[in-house]
Amino acid sequence: MESIFIEGTLKTPIVKFDGKTGIVEIKGRSIPENSIEFYKPLVDWLEEYAKKPLEKTQVNVQLEYFNTSSSKCILDVFKKLEAIHKAKHDVVINWYYEEDDEDMLEAGEDYESIIRVPFKMIEIVD
Amino acid sequence: MGFNVKEYYENISKGNILLAYKGSITSELINDVLEAVEKKLEEVNELSKTRKKLYNVLVESMQNLYHHIEESHEGITEEFDPKFGLLVIEKEDGMYKVTTGNFINSTKIKFLKEKIDKINSLSRDELKDMYKFILNHQKLSAKGGGGLGLVDIARKTGSKLEYVFHNYNNNYYFFNLIIKV
Lengths: 126, 181
Known about the structure:
A: Transcription Regulator spoIIAA; six-stranded mixed β-sheet; 6 strands; globular; B: Heat Shock Protein 90
């Protein structure tokens, strides 16, 4: 299936959803005023992907900042991944956070407690 | 004549100011403020932890203004821009104090006051639960607001939200929110 590559901007992250490798990446800042506009194509893509997912889907989320508007859309992304996992496909979410950023670690743990997909919390050390 | 917004703005802009703005709250303005503040915090070598918390608070508080400010204010003089809001960031006693201000219809005060009082009454763990509940159960509005901004601010700063409603005219109050980071 087609892949999605989106360059980052001041308020939106770099996105790479690769249908050939099953690697899904969101990196940078996600602070748009209206995040639905930005995330809808990503959620739609995952819905398509979920029909015929690869054996292994690896998700890398490395956000410096995200706003509460994005937090709900990120949950929607994770819910799509949860459905793939529930259908007995291998999914792992790698949640990256900077070493002193407890808020980002805690945000990852919030998602981990809501979404039934294995999470890996990965500290980025400078 | 009710509350004097200009005099209030001048008064709170006198301290150790990082940034002070009054006027329309637009998406571009939010970009400009974030960029300016980020630059200043870098110049003074602020701890990255504090920098991130302040940045998050600014994003949420300005986007709250952006989403909730009413376009037209009945009976409010023409000297105010449409989507008028104010933002002052100052350093006081080693903390950053963020003050926002906007006109609010008097019919919305009860809801907002109850929401803030509720948030202020919760412990850290209860705030976490409230955040997760809203995150998981409430849909985003058409504008992209999620009702999570204030909860997130309270959670990240660990301090109580201070607020004042100043009577402006029969229908409007000027709402001030004060956040300490």
